[in-house]
Amino acid sequence: MQASRIRTDIDFSADGKQVSWAHLPHSVHESAYGVIAMPIACIKNGDGPTILFMAGNHGDEYEGQVALTKLIRRLEPGHIKGRVIVLPTANFPAAMAGKRTSPIDQGNLNRMFPGDPNGTPTPAIAHWIESVLFELADVICDLHSGGSSLDYLPVCMTKRQVDPEMTRQAIAAVQAFGAHYAVLMDVVGEDRTSFSAGVRSRPRIVIGTEMAGKGTVGIEALRIAEDGVQRMLQHFGLWQGAPLVAMPTTLPTVLEVKGLAHYVYAPDAGLFEPFVDLGDRVVAGQPAGQVHFVDDPMRPATVSYFNGSGLVVCKRLPGRVVRGDCVFHLADELAA
Predict the structure, then answer these.
(1) Which residues contact 43 (CB under 8 A, 6 or more apart)?
(2) 109: left (phi over 0), alpha (psi -120 to 50) or beta
């Protein structure tokens, strides 16, 4: 794979705590020799597992960014055995703008893998993450939330792997994270440009979260994210000394997402009236909501329906929709 243009003065092999920036050359009218400076930290103490924590994959998802910024300030080499790499604002231009996508190239980092080292900033960042950071990590934890357009029940998720033992380990990790639910994603129809698909070269434990949303920093969601990050250090054996947070005494229910049947999309453009809320259980064929046409009051509303059964784990926030907007997302109990 071609070398990345992104450079950092961090020595990932050195013990100690290093907090610096990764520099992506970005020559623009206002800054001829400028760089995009993305914060990154490496905390290392001897041999042991490497865990990569990321947030800001989407810039309007805030709980993970706050949780990892706080982690950088408090974590010291003596706390761990192994290595922790922290990238709190992965799509830095998007994070600074508070947008899902980059204001520079409109790139959605989570759909840019494996990226392009010679591309615009978003594919260049994706290439660096995949070719450099992924290669260092045994465990990868990518913290998401619903952002500006969605609200989620707090969940920690992973995907089913070819190796059943790796799947078992991944499920154990998402349960240990301590969110309300643990979710196993179906890889059928997986977008091969996504973050999870980008982990290609060797087996790893890869987990992610969806922590509330609404374009805010949720108090409970942030607590779950912070505690979950600490639990991952404990679960994978990096943490030295007494645990800072208790591991879950009751393991979260494991849910799975069964492809397109677990998603509901707006059937038309207008104002969407939901019929159910987060945490409700629904069945296939049940009405999900209806779209009203306030510019044509006599036009009958268009009803949308659930194609699958399960728990409502995600709903759209803005009332105005266009055809194709995701309005609900389900998950159901993992089949035995």
Answers:
(1) 16, 17, 18, 75, 76, 77, 79, 80, 83, 84, 86
(2) alpha
Name 103's Cβ contacts closer than 8 Å, sequence gap at least 6.
Answer: 93, 94, 97
Tell me whether strands 7-8 and 16-25 are parallel, antiparallel or unpaired: antiparallel
Domains of the chain and any CATH numbers: 7-257 (3.40.630.10), 261-333 (2.40.50.100)
For the residues 277-289, what does the mean pLDDT come to? 97
CB 139 within 8 A of CB 236: yes
Cα–Cα distance, 269 to 204 (Å, whole number):
41
Residue 190 pLDDT more than 90?
no
What is the β-pairing status of strands 270-274 and 50-55? unpaired
SS3 166: helix
What distance lies between CA 7 and its chain's CA centroid? 24
pLDDT of residue 227: 97
Burial status of residue 81 (CB atoms within 10 A of its CB: 0-12, 13-18, 19 or more): middle
Average pLDDT over the chain, rounded to an integer? 93
Euclidean distance between CA atoms 177 and 330, whole angstroms: 21
Cα–Cα distance between 56 and 59 in angstroms, integer? Answer: 5
Is 253 a residue whose pLDDT tops 90?
A: no
Task: Please check whether residue 264 is in contact with residue 290, taking contact to mean a CB–CB distance below 8 angstroms.
Answer: no
Largest CA distance in the chain: 70
